[in-house]
Amino acid sequence: MKLNLFGGFLKQKADSVLGIDIGSSSIKVVQISKKGSQAVLDTYGELSLGPYGNVSVGRSVRLSPEKIAEALTALITEKEVGIKAKVAGIAVPFESSLMTTFSIPESASKELDAVVPLEARKYIPVPISEVTIDWSIVPSHKESTTDDIVKTEVPHPKIEKEIEVLLVAIHNDILQAYKQIATDSKLDVRFFEIEIFSTLRAIVDNEGAPVMIIDMGATNTKVYILERGVVRASHTINFGAQDITQAIATGLNMPFEEAEVLKRDIGLGQTTSGTDIAKMVEVPLGRIFSQANRIMFNFVKRYNTPLKQVLLVGGGSAIKGIDAYATNMLKTETVMANPFSKLNTPAFIDDVLARTGPEFVVAVGLALRALREVS
Question: What is the pTM for the complete model shown?
Answer without folding.
Answer: 0.88
